[in-house]
Design goal:
Elements: E1 2-5, E2 9-13, E3 18-22, E4 40-43, H1 45-52, E5 55-57, H2 59-70, H3 74-81, E6 91-95, E7 98-102, E8 107-110, E9 143-147, H4 173-185, E10 190-194, H5 204-213, E11 220-222, H6 228-237, E12 242-245, H7 251-258, H8 262-278, E13 283-289, H9 296-306, E14 311-318, H10 329-332, H11 336-352, E15 357-360, H12 363-368, H13 377-382, E16 392-395, E17 400-402, E18 414-417, H14 423-427, H15 430-437, H16 455-460, H17 466-473
Parallel strand pairs: 9-10, 9-16, 11-12, 12-13, 13-14, 14-15
Antiparallel strand pairs: 1-5, 1-8, 2-3, 3-4, 6-7, 16-17, 17-18
The structure holds S-adenosylmethionine and iron/sulfur cluster (2 copies).
Length: 496
């Protein structure tokens, strides 16, 4: 048997620590292997070095190599590392006065050689002086998303994006290539593209080709019915995943939700999906449920339709509130009853369906998404941490950089511009660091965070989502708790 550090994870050297995280951004993974799609933690560099030894040899050879390299007794090596081989659940390993968490299936066994396996050098992680694996901001960005334009083929009533100005990309192709190269040199994990409509950028093919060349297979979501020529080009690129957003198949509802001619749009989608079949391209479908389509009849029709095509995953989410949604949110939000009935239908369906995976917002992710408030500190501490300005940022089509993809051009949250600055300059800019540090010392006595004894833990683990705070309490109240926090007061603007 051959043992490998799971290709669905990645190690990023970050000065006094190593980031151990899922290999791909946007919750993706190589389907050939097990692995957690949303894992991220800091580990001691020695553990990164140990993991690098698992490159396809058998266990005895690997343990002996580690023993020779570090001089650690074989029984100690075995006691520590056997816990994280083919482990079905996360495992904790005690190191000095702390405990390090490892993801499920950290090391995997394979009975054949894994082609194109990226061999890591165990020594490359050992140039550290002082180690600090406490939660903190990474010294360089880990992920970024580039918004190529705010133009679309459709004009969806529920859209969260700030598309008040319809603009094309104002960053030159040459500059985009430089940024891709810098991201690669920084050893970043993710460089993704978003719109508006990515396929309306005149050089979408060139940009995607370069991203793939520099090891950033991009996540792309579209609502544009792609032509045969576009599909042929997508096929040439061998994009690992393409997402098509489709909410409903009733032509009348498509017309209402997307502001297009629903009949024509549906027939173009059918042609596109047939062509995708021809090229053997599997796609992910993303469905957003809002008032008009959050019912069993529309979901069943959509499900029967999707079964005819090459679908790998069907993701279903409930519409979220944004500052920029054109429609009054109360007119498009879903009711609790509709959530309960659709969730129960989808739960049953996901157990029966064998052609594709069905992913939907169960109660736990609704809690994480702020739909349900945590009742105690335990639940809040379990909730998702916010990566904005902690490990990721977002580039707008005019080159401005904001910390969060949903804050768009809100001035306070802009930290630089890629037309004039490098990625690392922006990451280490005064604007970025000031924003990161300002929640550490909250001076507003009205905010429950002011006197909260959890403040340190909460801040260092980035439990507060900037977007949710300002969407819930207004921009002036940026220093209020995350609305999911057990100490938070009722939001002024309800997110639900
Ligand atoms: C903003 S769009 C950009 C990519 C492309 N224009 C598209 O629609 O697929 C990314 C995804 O967010 C979804 N989306 C847009 N507004 C939303 C909202 N208010 N709540 C939940 N999802 C939303 C879209 O349906 C799409 O799947
Ligand atoms: S959801 Fe996508 S296609 Fe629809 S308006 Fe927003 S960005 Fe454009
Ligand atoms: S959000 Fe504020 S009140 Fe809630 S735990 Fe964090 S610091 Fe405390």
């Amino acid at each position: 048997m051959k043992y490998y550090f799971n290709p669905n994870y990645k190690l990023i050297d970050d000065k006094n620590k190593v980031v151990l995280l899922s290999r791909y951004s946007f919750s993706r993974k190589d389907p050939r292997f097990e692995g957690d799609i949303q894992f991220q933690t800091f580990i001691h560099p020695i553990y990164a070095s140990l993991l690098a030894f698992f490159k396809g040899n058998d266990l005895e050879t690997t343990f002996n190599e580690i023993h020779t390299f570090f001089g650690i007794p074989l029984d100690v090596i075995k006691t520590q590392l056997l816990k994280i081989i083919n482990n079905k659940e996360q495992q904790y390993i005690d190191f000095e006065d702390t405990s390090i968490v490892f993801p499920e299936h950290t090391i995997i066994a394979s009975n054949h050689i894994i082609e194109e396996y990226e061999i890591l050098d165990p020594e490359s992680f050992l140039n550290f002086s002082e180690v600090d694996i406490n939660p903190s901001r990474t010294s360089k960005p880990i992920d970024l998303t580039l918004m190529l334009n705010t133009k679309c083929h459709t004009n969806c009533i529920y859209c969260y994006a700030d598309r008040r100005n319809k603009i094309d990309c104002q960053i030159s192709d040459a500059r985009i290539n430089e940024i891709i190269i810098e991201a690669n040199q920084l050893g970043m994990r993710g460089f993704d593209l978003i719109g508006g409509e990515v396929f309306l950028h005149k050089n979408w093919y060139g940009i995607m080709e370069n991203l793939i060349k520099y090891d950033f297979p991009p996540f792309v979501s579209t609502k544009l019915p792609l032509t045969n020529i576009q599909i042929e080009r997508v096929s040439n690129l061998k994009l690992p995943e393409l997402q098509f957003s489709l909410d409903v198949i009733s032509p009348n509802k498509l017309t209402k939700l997307l502001n297009i001619n629903g009949e024509k749009y549906l027939s173009n989608i059918k042609v596109m999906f047939e062509n995708l079949k021809h090229y053997n391209i599997n796609i992910t479908i993303h469905t957003v449920l809002s008032k008009d389509n959050c019912n069993l009849e529309d979901l069943k029709q959509l499900y029967e339709f999707l079964r005819n095509y090459n679908i790998s995953v069907w993701k279903i989410d409930y519409v979220q509130k944004s500052l920029f949604t054109r429609e009054d949110f109360s007119k498009i939000k879903v009711s609790v009853n509709d959530v309960v009935s659709t969730t129960s239908y989808l739960r049953g369906l996901s157990q029966l369906e064998t052609k594709f995976k069905i992913q939907f917002s169960d109660i736990i992710s609704q809690k994480q998404n702020g739909l349900i408030k945590a009742k105690d500190d335990f639940l809040f501490h379990q909730s998702r941490s916010c990566p904005a300005n902690v490990s990721s940022f977002f580039i707008l089509p005019d080159g401005n950089v904001t910390i969060c993809e949903q804050l768009f051009w809100e001035k306070e949250y802009l930290i630089g511009n890629v037309k004039e600055q490098s990625l690392l300059e922006i990451w280490n800019s005064d604007a970025a660091l000031t924003l990161y540090n300002r929640r550490k010392k909250i001076e507003n006595k009205e905010s429950p965070c002011y006197s909260c004894e959890e403040s340190n833990y909460c801040h260092s683990n980035s439990l507060v989502c900037f977007r949710d705070v300002v969407f819930s309490y207004g921009f002036d109240n940026w220093d209020y708790p995350d609305p999911r926090c057990f100490k938070a007061s009722k939001p002024i603007y309800d997110l639900q």
